[in-house]
User: What shape does this take?
Amino acid sequence: MNKETYIQIRIDKTEKERIVKKAHYIGLTLSEYLRQLCIYGDLRNTPESVVVDLRRIGININQITRRVNGGSATKDQVLIELEILLEELKRINLR
Assistant: This one.
């Protein structure tokens, strides 16, 4: 996408350093960081431990789905496993 227009703002040196540091920390260019921040609001870098936990929960959901589709899981088993996963999601959200 060709960016043809620009927005100019005035900030002091310290503010610029903080913004550049935040963009770098998230792995974005300064322009992309500011675009996403303005369009989507707050940007947060998700800790690796949360990403790992969410990936594991996703894998568990896929396994449950396979068992349900294969007919090897009862409704009660699925509900229990989903309740456990819901509690894990709540725990992650409290971090």
